[in-house]
Design brief:
de novo design (two linked rop proteins), about 200 residues, 7 helices
């Protein structure tokens, strides 16, 4: 009588853990970004209805949304920037929920998400430049979106690279150091804010 070998233990592929972690990160950051975008959209609509309306996050002349909502930078693509966030973040939320439910996303989806977050982080960087060097102030809701977009971008690129959607590249190293990259990016932005706005921000309080 032949002795059958014991069934092989199932070892999850390398994408299972990162995919779940990415789903959690994408869900949290996208919800945060949608919340801030929705708050900005409400302020924008109320500002259109009443020019004397004071935005919900206006704290002082340097920190507030009104300065940004009234500037040309508020409609970079001939449409209000707030619409971009309100439209884009729900897409990532949907993908995050699918990943957490165990759905395997094809490579073309990862490529599409990568293009989307690349556009998002480029747009955020442009708005950071506007805040620090043109408008010389900070919009609290915008800062929340910055906080959300940085880890969303880093983790999306890391995961898409691991999934083979971005071709050859240092994706293993990026994925391994994704949190370090995120932290360094935060520190870079904080340093830039302190160099350009620090003294005036302190004086404003």
């Amino acid at each position: 009588m032949a002795i059958e070998p014991p069934p092989a233990r199932h070892t999850p592929g390398p994408h299972h853990g990162p995919t779940r972690e990415y789903g959690i990160v994408a869900l949290i950051t996208s919800l945060l970004g949608l919340w801030a975008s929705a708050a900005l959209a409400i302020d924008y609509i109320r500002r259109l209805q009443d020019e004397t309306y004071v935005a919900s996050c206006d704290i002082n002349p340097m920190i507030g949304c009104g300065l940004f909502l009234d500037s040309p930078a508020a409609s970079t693509f001939a449409i209000p920037n707030v619409i971009v966030g309100v439209a884009a973040f729900p897409v990532v939320i949907t993908l995050a929920v699918l990943l957490l439910a165990g759905v395997h996303l094809p490579r073309w989806v990862w490529r599409g998400v990568s293009i989307g977050v690349l556009f998002g982080i480029a747009f955020v960087t442009y708005l950071q430049y506007q805040a620090m060097f043109v408008l010389h102030g900070l919009c609290p809701w915008c800062v929340v979106i910055w906080v959300a977009m940085i880890p969303l971008f880093v983790h999306t690129i890391a995961r898409a690279g691991e999934a083979g959607a971005l071709g050859a590249g240092p994706w293993t190293a990026v994925a391994k150091n994704r949190w370090i990259i995120t932290l360094l990016w935060y520190l870079l932005v904080i340093g830039a804010i302190m160099l350009t706005l620090g003294a005036d921000l302190i004086a404003a309080f």
